[in-house]
Amino acid sequence: MAEYEHVRKGKLVLKGESDRSKKRKHKKEKKEKSEKEKSAVIVDDDAVNHGGWWKCQKLSEITGTIAIEFQDGQYIKSVDDGTFILGAKHENRDGPAFDEEFSAFIVNDSKIYIKSGFGKYLAVDNKTNMVVGRSDAAGQQECFEPVFNDGKMAIQAANNCFLTIDPEDDQLIALHKSVSNGNGVCVIRSNAYRGEIISKNAPIEEKIEDIDQIEINYVKKFQKFQDKKMKLCKDDKSELKNAQKSGKLHESLLDRRSKMKSDRYCK
């Protein structure tokens, strides 16, 4: 019996049982983390600061509704006489105005057409080098080529000159054959839907695309489950989708939560 006293006493552990349970838990946590990362929305603070209008980085993105920004918060604006000028500076998180919006059409692998809000195609007046929008149809003269280099962009017109702003009267012109000292550098922005654009400071509950899951996450965070049942607002969720696009998602979720008596923060 003396030999048994030297045997270490403890809980009966089957071979490999303890390690396997830990590994299984680790794999589960890793899988859940991976799924959360996949559902997270790509944060684009630059787009947030420009009213949801994001920077086009390649030709294939320059299609549909666009805005042309030459200085931070200042966009090309259409004038009713067919000319274009640099508009007033916008406040932070404010996108372009209606008369600063254009339509872009991809012509081929390198060129695009641009149409103003008045329904006219942009082209360069060869006599004045001014960019004007007075064409009802598009051809070679109405072609523009976005040129990308080292993260920056410039737009070359049909006269092989780059678009820039005349410092004397803020008119949009195509006069110089090269881009120097920042003259001619611009940004084309699009408001095409890419998923929700949010800030890094947004709550983690909002950093997913599924609007149903966002509401469930908020319910889990704030609601008391007295009867062990989750209670969701039965109102139409289309209001959440509209609020998500307009940047008022949090307020809308709060309104829906206030209708649920089991929410400890909304009574």
TrEMBL record:
UniProt biased composition (Basic residues): 21-30
Gene3D superfamilies membership: 2.80.10.50
Superkingdom of source: Eukaryota
Coiled coil, from the record: none
Signal peptide: none
Cross-referenced Pfam families: FRG1
Keywords linked to the UniProt accession: Nucleus
InterPro entries, A to Z: Actin-crosslinking (IPR008999), FRG1 (IPR010414)
Assigned GO CC terms: catalytic step 2 spliceosome; nucleolus; striated muscle dense body
Location in or out of the cell: Nucleus, Nucleolus
Keyword Repressor: no
Single GO molecular function: actin filament binding
Disordered as annotated region, ranges: 1-39, 239-267
Family membership noted in the UniProt record: Belongs to the FRG1 family.
This protein's name: Actin-bundling protein
